[in-house]
From TrEMBL:
Source organism of the structure: Kwoniella heveanensis BCC8398
Segments of skewed composition (Basic and acidic residues): 58-71, 82-103
Name of the molecule in the record: Zinc knuckle domain-containing protein
Pfam family, one: zf-CCHC_3
Keyword annotations of the record: mRNA processing
Length: 109
């Protein structure tokens, strides 16, 4: 092999077939010689963090976890309607209970 020659140092600069690029993780070239775009970005993008309701910089995760219901119903009808209905129903039930109590107390008196 010619690598045994006196100019072995130049081999350092050359990318051997075993040289793995740390950027695109492909063989055959050095990282600083890489011309390929990164195939995979391990970090979530900044826009995604903002979309999750961050707004405050420097935090990795939003303090409040978004329930699955919220995520899935983003395009459909608002979950707010459901919550409002539920609360309304709850209020109605509480009122009914109160009226019932009133009736009972009236009966007793
Ligand atoms: Zn590369």
């Amino acid at each position: 092999m010619w690598t045994r020659g006196p100019r072995q140092l130049t081999n350092n600069d050359r990318a051997s077939p075993n040289t793995r690029c740390q950027r695109c993780l492909k063989l055959g070239h050095h990282t600083y010689q890489c011309t390929n775009p990164r195939p995979y970005v391990p970090r979530p993008s900044r826009t995604k963090q903002l979309a999750l309701g961050g707004g405050v910089g420097g935090r990795d995760k939003p303090s409040v976890e978004v329930p699955e219901e919220f995520k899935s119903s983003a395009s459909g009808m608002g979950i707010a309607d459901k919550i409002l209905k539920a609360k309304e129903e709850e209020r109605r039930r509480a009122e009914e209970k109160r009226k019932e109590k009133e009736r009972q107390s009236r009966k007793r008196r």
